[in-house]
Amino acid sequence: VGGARAVTLEQFRTLFGRAAAPLGAAPSDGPRGDHDLNPGFTPRPEARPAAVLVPVVDRPDGATILLTRRSDDLPVHAGQVSFPGGRVETSDRDPVHTALRESEEEIGLDPGAVTVLGRMDTYLTGTGYAVVPVVGLLNPPLALTPDPREVAEIFEVPLALVCDRQNHRRESAMWKAKRRHYYVMPYKHYHIWGATAGMLVNLVDMIDRGRSGAAAD
Q1: What is the mean pLDDT of residues 53-64?
Q2: Chain segment 120-149, per-residue pLDDT in tens
Q3: What are the φ and ψ backbone dihedral angles of 171, each rounded to 5 degrees?
Q4: Which of 55, 58, 107, 139 is the most buried (most CB within 10 A)?
Q5: Distance in angstroms between the alpha carbons of the first and the last residue of the chain
């Protein structure tokens, strides 16, 4: 799905719907994660469960994906771009509940304003989390209030930019005395990288998967 073949919102809903696993089931293709670009890098077996919301916004000029920039005062991952979300709590019914609860806490998003479309492949992070990305549709106007303790900024990236494979860059850096590779997705002055960029790449993979399924039919 390159820039010239960027999907409309309706196409996205159809193609993603073909590829998405049922909300209560694990994806058939198995987990994705930081290990994808790093052969021999084994995620922790005791990964802690977490969930994030991948909010797709229905804009007149084209669908966008909502992201946050974390507060610069946080003890971990300060200033990094991320989806709203966090660790699963014992009171959470399922990953959808976790993603919506965390989104309400972090950016003031009303859970009732989200139309859940499905879940993506579980993403295993190098820091020991098994993250379930939950894709949800938002219809403006959006009444959002970021919690300044956690979120410094809310912004949106065009879905067309995310779907353009030319924007899926691979870079590397030294981490714990080893070179690790990761995805970077540049947008204006924002540095979208690591797990967030990896999940966006997986989203496009799922769109392609849905397109392949349609061709097979």
Answers
A1: 96
A2: 999 999 889 999 999 999 999 999 999 999
A3: -130, 175
A4: 55
A5: 19
Report the distance separating Cα 187 and Cα 160, nearest Å: 12
Contact status, residue 84 vs residue 109, Cβ threshold 8 Å? yes
- Indicate the pLDDT class of residue 22, thresholds 50, 70 and 90: low
Peptide bond into 141 cis (omega under 30): yes
Closest C-alpha among 203, 109, 120 to residue 161: 203
Supply the pLDDT for residue 25: 64
Asked if 101 contacts 109 with a C-beta cutoff of 8 angstroms, the reply is: no
Residue 143 CA to residue 212 CA, distance in Å, equals: 37
Angle (nearest 5°) at CA 108 between 142 and 150: 125
Report the candidate in 177, 176, 185 with the shortest Cα–Cα distance to residue 67.
185
How far apart CA 192 and CA 215 sit, in angstroms, is: 32
What DSSP character marks residue 143? -
DSSP-derived 3-state class of residue 87: strand
Residues 29 and 119: beta-carbon distance below 8 Å: no
The tokens for 6 are 């960027």
